[in-house]
């Protein structure tokens, strides 16, 4: 379309020590935009700690932020020949779980045309999400905010899972200590030594006296107690006095 336009002289990567994420821009989309707008995008990304790469991709943008990957179609000039756009959207929404379509509608006529085209195309609400904006700068700011918020949500979800796993691990260790220290003469130090050297209660039950002595600092008497407890029914069913 506009391949004859001069391309803004900006580096292929805009580096920021903050490391907010990575933005990949489609080469052909870039070539259709004005150099001033590409410079605006580069500056905006750099100031918000995103690296910018120009690559051959099917969406107009892919953002990787906080472990989340988000794809965008960015329509900067709403026109009359829009049927190929909706065909492209249908293909991309199958390929990308997180897809947004940002559409610049600068006039009332463009807004009416978009609404008519949207319903005529048979789009399903929210699949994908359409984001109408008044101007291209606002549109790109919206794109970065969406990508950033998706990354933050992904990070918070990962933190929640990590806390939950840590809580389960602590609870599991509490149960382990209660079970192992219930053996005659075995204290918390012995239980921790067994956990670190041998592992689970099942593994301890299978360990021989010799293996316990070789891999822990437990005494021979304690190793004998553990070995007999899990192997000798007369021993573990009999009354014990600590």
Summarize the structure in words.
This protein is an alpha/beta fold and 242 residues long. The chain has two domains: 21-159, Rossmann fold; 172-235, Orthogonal Bundle (DNA polymerase, domain 1), CATH 1.10.150.20. Helix content is 54%, strand content 15%. The chain has ten helices and six strands. It has helices at residues 27-31, 35-47, 83-95, 108-121, 136-180, 188-197, 201-206, 209-215, 220-231, 233-237; strands spanning 21-26, 50-55, 61-65, 68-75, 99-104, 129-133. Strands 2-1-3-4-5-6 form a six-stranded mixed β-sheet, sandwiched between helices. Helix 2 (35-47) runs parallel beside helix 5 and helix 8 (209-215) crosses helix 9 (220-231). It is elongated and about 90 Å long.
* Second CATH tier, the architecture of the largest domain: 3-Layer(aba) Sandwich
- SSE pattern, N- to C-terminal: EHHEEEHEHEHHHHHH
Strand order within the widest sheet?
2-1-3-4-5-6
Structural class category:
alpha/beta
User: What is the C-level CATH assignment of the largest domain?
Assistant: Alpha Beta
Ranges where pLDDT stays below 50 over 5 or more residues in a row are 1-19
Helix content: 40-55%
Number of strands: 6
Gyration radius from CA atoms, angstroms: 31 Å
How far apart the termini lie comes to 88 Å
Largest sheet: 6 strands, mixed
Q: Per CATH, what is the topology of the largest domain? A: Rossmann fold
**In DSSP terms, counting alpha (H) and pi (I) runs of 4 or more, how many helices?**
10
Q: Overall mean pLDDT score?
A: 81
Strand content: 5-15%
User: What is the number of independent domains?
Assistant: 2
Shape: elongated
């Amino acid at each position: 379309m506009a391949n004859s336009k001069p391309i803004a002289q900006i580096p292929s990567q805009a580096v920021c020590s903050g490391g907010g994420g990575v933005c990949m821009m489609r080469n052909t989309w870039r070539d259709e935009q004005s150099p001033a707008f590409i410079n605006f995008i580069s500056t905006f990304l750099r100031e918000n700690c995103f690296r910018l790469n120009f690559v051959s991709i099917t969406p107009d943008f892919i953002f990787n932020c906080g472990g989340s990957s988000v794809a965008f179609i960015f329509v900067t000039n709403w026109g009359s020949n829009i049927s190929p756009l909706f065909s492209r959207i249908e293909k991309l929404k199958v390929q990308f779980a997180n897809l947004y379509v940002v559409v610049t509608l600068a006039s009332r006529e463009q807004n009416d045309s978009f609404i008519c085209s949207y319903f005529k195309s048979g789009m399903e609400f929210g699949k994908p999400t359409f984001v109408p904006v008044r101007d291209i700068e606002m549109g790109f700011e919206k794109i970065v905010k969406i990508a950033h918020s998706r990354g933050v949500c992904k990070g918070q979800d990962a933190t929640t899972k990590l806390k939950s796993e840590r809580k389960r691990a602590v609870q599991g260790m509490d149960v382990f200590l209660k079970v192992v220290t219930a053996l005659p003469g075995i204290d918390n130090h012995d239980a921790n030594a067994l956990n670190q050297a041998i592992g689970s209660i099942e593994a301890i039950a299978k360990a021989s006296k010799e293996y316990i002595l070789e891999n822990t600092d437990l005494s021979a008497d304690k190793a004998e107690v553990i070995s007999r407890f899990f192997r000798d029914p007369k021993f573990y069913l009999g009354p014990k006095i600590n």
